[in-house]
Structure formats: structure tokens, C-alpha cells
Amino acid sequence: MTCIKAWALFVIGFFLSGFMQLSHGQAQAPVAAPPMSNDGTAVDQGVAYALMLIALIVTYLIH
């Protein structure tokens, strides 16, 4: 019986120890987002993906 109580105390203590991290500090302040810039790389990448998809479809249809 004492062994069961000791084991239960250990298990409960283990699970409750996770709550100790909640008391260590506050959340950090959010960082301002960098300004949006459009250098064309997203457009280029979109065009490249579209061309690869077209090539894949054409290859599938020819095969």
C-alpha cells in the first residue's frame, strides 16, 4: 500500500511539474513585421511552378 502511494505521488508530481514552467515569465512582446517588398521573386517562382506543371501534364499526355 505504501508503495502504491509513493508511486502515485511520483506520477502526480511528474505531471504537475509541467505547470512550473508557466510561472517562469511573461510572453514576449510581438515583433513588428518587416515592410512588404515585392522584388518579383514570388512572381518568378509562380511562373516556374506553372511551367513545370504544364510540362508534367504534357509529358503525361504524350507518354
UniProtKB/TrEMBL annotation:
Residues 1-25 form the signal peptide. The keyword Transmembrane helix applies. It comes from the Eukaryota. The chain crosses the membrane at residues 41-62. Keywords: Membrane, Signal, Transmembrane, Transmembrane helix. The keyword Transmembrane applies. It holds the Pfam family AGP. This is Arabinogalactan peptide 16. It comes from Platanthera zijinensis. The gene is AGP16.
